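Retro notes (design track)

What went well: tokenization of the new backbones is finally stable.
What didn't: we kept losing track of which sequence belonged to which structure.
Fix going forward: every design gets posted as structure first, then sequence, in one message. First example under the new rule, 170 residues:
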């Protein structure tokens, strides 16, 4: 089962390396990892997607808390959340197929961000399943290059895990 973990941590050099090393030592394959600043100066938010059992995720969560810089870890997999991923795809697009690609982009609410002589670059920000579906539908056109950000997620409503951690650290 895929688990989405959200960790709040102090923004210090080397923290990302320590976190990823912890997962490596435990034999976890990180499917995606996204890190960025939060609304609180000096605090970063890391979203990690791993494919593992509930028990293994609980164990690694406990290990994460042993890292001094880690303030809060939450498995938001079962919580009502909003998850997004960004993908940019450069596809083969001769002029004869551009209308078809443009229609497909419209259906998925993707943006055409670059046009070249024989290619289009498309950008889509959506839930991970929609991103996967979009990739599969543009694949027959010929994907020349692709980059994905990895999943980011936030729990719905006013009782967010980030707010709880902020209160504890303030």
């Amino acid at each position: 089962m895929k688990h989405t973990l959200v960790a709040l941590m102090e923004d210090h050099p080397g923290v990302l390396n320590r976190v990823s090393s912890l997962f490596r030592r435990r034999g976890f394959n990180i499917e995606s990892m996204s890190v960025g600043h939060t609304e609180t100066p000096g605090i970063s938010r890391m979203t990690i997607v791993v494919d593992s059992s509930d028990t293994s995720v609980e164990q690694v969560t406990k290990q994460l808390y042993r890292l001094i810089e880690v303030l809060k870890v939450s498995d938001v997999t079962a919580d009502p959340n909003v998850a997004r991923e960004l993908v940019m795809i450069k596809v083969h697009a001769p002029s004869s197929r551009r209308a078809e690609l443009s229609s497909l982009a419209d259906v998925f609410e993707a943006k055409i961000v670059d046009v070249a002589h024989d290619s289009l670059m498309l950008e889509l920000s959506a839930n991970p399943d929609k991103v996967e579906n979009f990739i599969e539908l543009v694949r027959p056109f010929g994907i020349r290059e692709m980059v994905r950000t990895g999943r980011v997620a936030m729990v719905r409503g006013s009782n967010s895990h980030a707010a709880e951690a902020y209160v504890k650290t303030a």
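Added context from the reviewer: The longest strand covers residues 81-92.
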